[in-house]
Amino acid sequence: MTVAPKRPKGPPLNAMRAFEAAARHVSFVSAAEELNVTPGAISQHVKSLEAWSEMPLFRRNAQGVVLTQAGQALVADFTAAFDGVANATRALRNLNPNPDFQIAALPSIAQLWLPKRLAKIRAQLPMINFSVTALETAPSLSRELFDLAIFFGESDGTANQISICSDDIVPVCSPVLLDRFANEGFDSLTLLHDQTWVDDWKTWCEAVEMPVKNVQNGPKFSLYSLAVEEAKAGAGALMGHLCLIDDLVACGELVIPKNTSCSTGKSLILQLPKVAQRRHETHQVAQMLI
């Protein structure tokens, strides 16, 4: 007679993955963004892990979550384990002789800055298929299968980051609005806003000491590229991020009514995976982008 006893069963892999991400970020919201699920799903996964271990791993409060002593003791092992899974997954993908080259970028960068540069790279590297994913927050390149990421941020000074240029801003508008601006200034123009960079006008006005009435008023757009199109169409003045709209200024589709720019304190940054995780084409592609 065959003996088939019931074997001890561990917790679900998804629950452990959710705990590791939440512990690393000390945030259910950030973990949810990384794993592309809801914060509620992260909470349920963590609860299931706590039920399995019969040990609280987080303390919940109105401000968010804090790791308990037991949870803190697990972080290093869980992080190393999922780093190993990520490395193995990347190695498996790279067995394909020609996997897609995956780029993550902020939507505005993916739409306004990247296409022209990517077209030149494709012409020189026709054997590589480039895929672009637009994300609002930068991914973890040690975990996700992206070969590089391009976002605005502050440089951490490591060799895995390349600062391409400073993020300088200045008002731009359609040439048809120049006469109105010359006669009445910014108070005569509708101010256009990007929802992500909703404080751009306030930042610029304070930096250049330019008083503008009702600086937070005006239409707001969920995509910067939409706001750019509205500015081109003469709908109002937009705070232009120069590295994104320099071509439009150069060809005259947008003009700078007051040529005084300021820095947001951030830079356009190209983020690379760790050297051991890079494909052999990664350095060449990065150099061609900058």
From TrEMBL:
<dbReference type="Pfam" id="PF00126">
    <property type="entry name" value="HTH_1"/>
</dbReference>
<dbReference type="Pfam" id="PF03466">
    <property type="entry name" value="LysR_substrate"/>
</dbReference>
<dbReference type="GO" id="GO:0006351">
    <property type="term" value="P:DNA-templated transcription"/>
</dbReference>
<comment type="similarity">
    <text>Belongs to the LysR transcriptional regulatory family.</text>
</comment>
<dbReference type="InterPro" id="IPR058163">
    <property type="entry name" value="LysR-type_TF_proteobact-type"/>
</dbReference>
<dbReference type="GO" id="GO:0043565">
    <property type="term" value="F:sequence-specific DNA binding"/>
</dbReference>
<dbReference type="InterPro" id="IPR036390">
    <property type="entry name" value="WH_DNA-bd_sf"/>
</dbReference>
<dbReference type="InterPro" id="IPR000847">
    <property type="entry name" value="LysR_HTH_N"/>
</dbReference>
<keyword id="KW-0238">DNA-binding</keyword>
<dbReference type="InterPro" id="IPR005119">
    <property type="entry name" value="LysR_subst-bd"/>
</dbReference>
<dbReference type="InterPro" id="IPR036388">
    <property type="entry name" value="WH-like_DNA-bd_sf"/>
</dbReference>
<dbReference type="GO" id="GO:0003700">
    <property type="term" value="F:DNA-binding transcription factor activity"/>
</dbReference>
<protein>
    <submittedName>
        <fullName>LysR family transcriptional regulator</fullName>
    </submittedName>
</protein>
<keyword id="KW-0805">Transcription regulation</keyword>
<feature type="domain" description="HTH lysR-type">
    <location>
        <begin position="11"/>
        <end position="68"/>
    </location>
</feature>
<keyword id="KW-0804">Transcription</keyword>
